[in-house]
Design brief:
The structure is a single chain. The chain has helices spanning 3-33, 108-115, 119-123, 125-136, and strands spanning 41-45, 50-58, 62-67, 71-76, 80-83, 140-151, 155-168, 172-185, 188-203, 208-219, 234-249, 253-268, 274-291, 295-305, 313-323, 328-338, 348-358. 16% of the residues lie in helices and 53% in strands. It has 359 residues and is α+β, with helices and mostly antiparallel strands. It has a twelve-stranded antiparallel beta barrel with strand order 6-7-8-9-10-11-12-13-14-15-16-17.
């Protein structure tokens, strides 16, 4: 190989080496410039439950959160606190950081087991409340249940489930309620009752309001108090139309007083089928008091009076609610109905303990 060929060969090696160095430097620069994955954000509910993921959008009322386990959630800002993930640091070296002395290596199987969604997480009160809140949106309420099993001189079992929805506007308020009660004594069904009612209230001013209360009650275990205990199942429709004045209106105390006209329609669903309708006047009082330790006391009393027949009746409902967290609550309720003016519904007095999920 002569001198000129040796020079060309040496130049070729220099070009190859320079190209290799440039390619390696470009790869290192791209690895250094590639942004690291952001750290996960955390939603902390007021009862201590935590959900990991990333905040997609947020305003003063609503947080849209992409959860690693539960998908996309819509949560009210009053129910959670967001802990933002720390910003990732720019890596200074391509090598993986060494483990701290005494720290065992992370087992991939153990990490997968920690991130696996358990059945309890699916059934937890916080998860149920989040699903209900996401489904009903601007409506807030409570899902509650009560159960009892007693064996003494008789075997008795009582079950009850109910739901409550409420929404408020500037001058209007709407409520929807549903309840199902089922009781048995020695295998004989004594209560099989389905009831639904609603409320629409409009405030003309801070003192004057009007309201409309429809309700329907279907009793499939009603009996006539005779020796044969003949069945007397019924469907009761009641419409209360009235108005009144607000005596006290404060953030922690409210008292309303008013009068109403009540329209009763009763259908006897056991033979012989009958339909009766009548109108009854009534007066009512409603109170709502917020107490310390997250306690709330509500009461509604109604007195029915009939100018034509002189037959009077009354009903009252008192409930004391205790909120343990933003999602868990319990309530003690006492309600009574005596000499019901519809002429068919049973008189009763009930004392009930309820466990509920707030949303």
């Amino acid at each position: 190989m002569d001198y000129s060929e040796r020079m060309r060969f040496a130049g070729f090696k220099v070009v190859v080496l320079f190209t290799s160095l440039c390619a390696g430097g470009w790869s290192v620069a791209r690895a250094a410039d590639k942004p690291a994955e952001p750290a996960a954000d955390t939603l902390v509910f007021k009862d201590g439950d935590r959900v990991h993921g990333h905040v997609l959008a947020q305003d003063e009322n609503l947080i849209v959160f992409k959860s690693d386990r539960f998908g996309e959630l819509h949560v009210s800002t009053r129910d959670v606190v967001v802990i933002k993930g720390s910003a990732p640091e720019t890596p200074v070296a391509a090598a993986a950081p060494a483990a701290r002395p005494g720290t065992p290596p992370v087992n991939p199987a153990e990490r997968a087991a920690e991130e696996q969604v358990t059945l309890w997480e699916h059934l937890s009160a916080a998860r149920l409340a989040a699903n209900l809140r996401d489904f009903f949106g601007a409506w807030h309420g409570r899902l509650a249940f009560s159960t009892e099993a007693v064996a003494d001189t008789a075997d008795r079992s009582n079950q009850s489930i109910e739901g409550h929805l409420k929404r408020k506007w500037t001058a209007d308020e709407a409520q929807l309620n549903g309840r199902y009660d089922f009781n048995q004594t020695n295998g004989l069904t004594t209560t099989d009752l389905l009831k639904a009612d609603g409320l629409w209230r409009h405030d003309f001013s801070k003192k004057v309001f009007t309201q409309y209360r429809p309700s329907v009650e279907w009793n499939r275990a009603n009996f006539i108090a005779t020796g044969t205990k003949a069945p007397a199942d019924y469907v009761l429709l009641q419409q209360e139309i009235g108005g009144g004045i607000t005596l006290v209106s404060a953030p922690a105390h409210q008292v309303r007083l008013g009068v109403s006209e009540n329209l009763f329609d009763v259908w006897n669903t056991s033979p012989p089928t009958l339909h009766k309708a009548r109108a009854i006047e009534s007066g009512f009082v409603e109170t709502e008091v917020k107490l310390p330790w997250s306690l709330k006391l509500t009461e509604r009393g109604v007195y029915y009076y009939s100018i034509a027949s002189g037959t009077d009746g009354w009903e009252n409902r008192v409930e004391l609610t205790k909120k343990f967290t933003e999602t868990l609550s319990t309530a003690i309720r006492h309600e009574t109905r005596q000499n019901s003016p519809d002429g068919r519904a049973q008189d009763y007095t009930r004392l009930k303990l309820l466990l509920g999920v707030e949303f």
